[in-house]
Structures are given as structure tokens and as C-alpha cells.
Design a protein that fits this description.
Structural class: mainly alpha
Number of helices: 7
Helix content: over 70%
Oligomer: single chain
Radius of gyration: 15 Å
């Protein structure tokens, strides 16, 4: 349970950082992706993905192969994307979006582990799906979809955190 709790905690921190980045890009425009402050936040979020993956990997999650295969793939692709974005190459942004497509797939392991908490698990999983699907809309100045998805995912994670505190998970 401790590893799952830590994975959840890191995911919550990353979720709030992602929300901050989404809001900044919504306000400042798509070109702000290349601002140093945004890139530093991208790198911080990416760094957080490593302990989040490790903690979930070490926990007793169901259908672990979703996490085992898709999380490292997402981490690797987003790494390449952030490197390219750091050099102001727009392909990097596209790779970051591609990498995030694998986040909800990896999250299936978490979803199945906590599915008995119907509201929390669905908010977490479907929020991640909506967030991911909303990322390409930033190219058309439509930021609300990804922001809403991230907020919903965060609410689900916070609800799961409460279930962990109550000793109801793992």
C-alpha cells in the first residue's frame, strides 16, 4: 500500500504542475511552450514521471503489464519531445502529445486496481483520457478540453488519496 500511496502522491503533484502549464499556455499562447519557464516545468513533470512509475511498478496493481509497457514508452517519447522542444523544435511538442497518449493506457492498471471506488476511479481514468484527447486542441486555441480533463483526473486522484488514508486501497 505504501508504494501505491507514494505513486498517487507523485501523480497528484504532477497533475497540479500539468494544470499550471496548461493554464499558462492557454493564457500566453502556443508559442509559450518554448519559454524557459514552461520548459523547466516540462522537465520537472518529466522527472516526476520516473518516481511515479517506480512506485506504481512496485505496488500491487492489477494488470501490471499496462503499466510495465506503456509507462516507459510514454516516459521515453516525452523525454525525446522535451529535448527537441528545449531546442525550439515543434516536433518536440508533437512527441510530448504522442507520449501522453500512452498515459491513460498505462493508467488502466491503476483504474482496475481501484475500480471498486467507482466515482474516484472513473474520474481518474476518464479525466486522463479527456486530458490526453484535449492536448491537440491547443493548436486551435481550444484549451478547455485538456484543462477540464486534468482537473477531473486530479479530483479522482484526490478522492483515491482519501481512500488510501482510510486504508481502503491495497
Amino acid at each position: 500500500m505504501e508504494y501505491f500511496r507514494l505513486g498517487n502522491l507523485v501523480s497528484i503533484i504532477a497533475g497540479f504542475l500539468i494544470l499550471a502549464v496548461l493554464l499558462q499556455i492557454a493564457i500566453l499562447g502556443i508559442k509559450s511552450i518554448f519559454y524557459l519557464s514552461i520548459l523547466v516545468q516540462f522537465w520537472t513533470i518529466w522527472i516526476l514521471s520516473i518516481p511515479a512509475f517506480y512506485f506504481y511498478y512496485k505496488s500491487s496493481i492489477q494488470k501490471k503489464y499496462f503499466m510495465d509497457y506503456f509507462a516507459p514508452l510514454a516516459i521515453a517519447i516525452t523525454f525525446i519531445g522535451i529535448v527537441l522542444a528545449s531546442y525550439h523544435i515543434f516536433l518536440g511538442v508533437e512527441l510530448i502529445v504522442l507520449g501522453y497518449i500512452f498515459e491513460p493506457i498505462a493508467g488502466i492498471s491503476i483504474y482496475l486496481t481501484v475500480k471498486q471506488f467507482v466515482l474516484a476511479s472513473n474520474l481518474f481514468f476518464w479525466g486522463a483520457v479527456v486530458y490526453t484527447l484535449g492536448l491537440p486542441f491547443y493548436l486551435y486555441n481550444i484549451s478547455e478540453v485538456a484543462i477540464l480533463g486534468d482537473v477531473v483526473k486530479l479530483i479522482g486522484l484526490l478522492m483515491l488519496s482519501q481512500k488510501i488514508k482510510e486504508g481502503k486501497i491495497l
